[in-house]
Amino acid sequence: MDREAAGLYILDETLESVGFGKFQAFALGYAGLGWFAEAMEIMILSFIGQAVKSECQQTSTQESLLSTIVFDRMLIGAYTWAFYQIIMAGGTLITSISSSLLTN
């Protein structure tokens, strides 16, 4: 079956038809700020770890544990928001996983 006859579009064709306007620029900028904040958090954590280690007389293991806890909480938060999105979208976990795996 032909892709166009079936009404299927690839990502490039979809973006061409939608275009790039003010909303897309705002969404791109907002996502960029989030990415920037995430990178800053990781970089600042390396400086704060050294300061906390010297200020509180921590061992290297305790300093590493502090960074591990931060990243562990980031992982929990990502999964929490993902499940919240699934619930709010009215889908199930299986449909969300299968749709993400089956896209081009």
From TrEMBL:
Output this protein's name: Major facilitator superfamily protein
Tell me how this protein sits in the membrane. Multi-pass membrane protein
Spans through the membrane: 81-102
List the PANTHER family: MAJOR FACILITATOR-TYPE TRANSPORTER HXNZ-RELATED, SYNAPTIC VESICLE GLYCOPROTEIN 2
Q: Which organism is it from?
A: Hibiscus syriacus
Transferase in keyword set: no
Any idea which UniProt keywords this protein has? Membrane, Transmembrane, Transmembrane helix, Transport
Where is it located?
Answer: Membrane
- The question of whether Transmembrane helix is a record keyword is answered with yes
- What GO cellular component entries does it have? membrane
Principal cellular location given in the protein's record? membrane
